[in-house]
User: Fold this.
Amino acid sequence: MKYTDEFRDPVAAKGLLDQIATVVDQIGATADSPVHIMEICGGHTHAIFRYGLDKLTPPGIEFIHGPGCPVCVLPMSRVDECVQLAEDPRVIFTTFGDAMRVPGTRKSLMQAKAEGADIRMVYSPLDALELARRNPDREVVFFGLGFETTTPSTALSIQAAAREGLGNFSVFCNHITVPPPIKVLLDDPHMILDGFVGPGHVSMVIGTHPYDFIAQDYGKPIVVAGFEPLDLLQSVLMVLEQIRDGRAEVENQYARIVPEHGNPVSLAAIADVYEPRPSFEWRGLGEIDASGLRIRDRYARFDAEVKFGIGYAAGPRVVQEPEGCECGAVMTGRMKPVQCPQFGTGCTPEMPLGALMVSSEGACAAYYQYGGARAAEPAT
Assistant:
């Protein structure tokens, strides 16, 4: 295949759906006793609802929406620290746009900007580097956020700042990794998970072997998937075939993009700049050991936590979610967005209570945008 429309071919999709239905029947899965497949990545969640795959697949499949949205899993305490940094008159605070409207306990970055904080949306940490070059009398802080997908670009920017001696550039590091929270979910006795659709963009960086523990230690199949409709349907079929055959393997449907051993240049940059944090707080999951990254001591002059004495440098701070907000339960697959009592009423894209409603990868945003009638269904 060479063109995007080939990955959206309805005839090919119909063929895959027929195969999926056959395997579901062979497994004996039904609406009352479905196969539970977790798509880890929020991008996959949006693709499933954008293309109606949840409606096209048989009722014997239950999609569980995982914690693969970095904006969504950011605890409110870290949003508060972003606002604190942004309100410092010495600082130009830079961030990706999807973090602007995530609520903290006092306000969001968008609200802080409206009140006069110098907050600028950027497309890359390289934009923040350029701002530091042009504003030598200001401290430029980049909000480093994301899984392994965005981690290399931040690392390369820190390396560039070190080479240039840009003393007014720093990163508020909130980079996190995918495997540890998946282990937490698998260890949860209340979670029912039969297989996984693995993240494509993360795996482009880290490869497929970091997921070996899912198959080897927990006996669950995982298939790394692309983001087009045929990618997802083929990946679901591959997961189902493993379950039918009694196999548990790591398979790579997205081989046109994802190399088995990852991207060596990206991995080298990550290893040079970062080290694992002893623990990091995840919204809905709490503190998870070695799940976050921090900037190594040799690059400490570019670490905003060290430079400004905030975050884990000042000691962790746990903040409770707003009353009635069920982001944690939705993000860990315990609840569907429409089951949250605030969905579509007290929590909307215009007036969000939680990050899942405003993030471009949030499950609540996907349900609200693509869910149609389901968005209006009462909570059950």
